[in-house]
Amino acid sequence: MNRFGTTKLSRRFDFYKTLNMIVELLNKSKHPTPSYETKQSAGMDLRANLDEPIVLKPLQRAIVKTGLFMALPTGYEAQVRPRSGLAAKKGITVLNAPGTIDADYRGEIGVILVNLSNEDFEVKDGERIAQLVIAKHEQIEWVRVSELNETDRGTGGFGSTGV
Fold this sequence. Notes:
By secondary structure, the chain is mainly beta. It has a domain at about 25-135: Deoxyuridine triphosphatase (dUTPase) (Deoxyuridine 5'-Triphosphate Nucleotidohydrolase, Chain A). It is built from two helices and eleven strands; from the N terminus they run αββββββαβββββ. The longest helix is centred in the N-terminal third of the chain and has 10 residues, at about 10-15.
């Protein structure tokens, strides 16, 4: 512990917490730039950018535009995920969850919403419809082999490890 009441390690972590990745954003929507609601939030809410409401009937899907365009750094993706409250309370979710936005995509961010409830749902302009999470990823090279190493699990899948 030093005279400031911190350890060298805690100062190092505090320093790293202040570093943020820079992502270029073109916001053509009528709404504020997405932001984190709390210091430890993983996702930012995406809002519908609509000239008129969209009504989703039960089991109907639609691509809802956001008015947002971005340029992610190579090695990162943006994941479009459902909002838990909208899913739990209204049965509205992201159909291809998580939807992936690649670093080389420059088009408008759209969200594929689906209504899994038994009632019509109206998507209004400015409504928070999904979350956006930025994630690092790797690309691989396949190495073809004639067999794989053995594991305790083996080929068991889809419920093979328990109830």
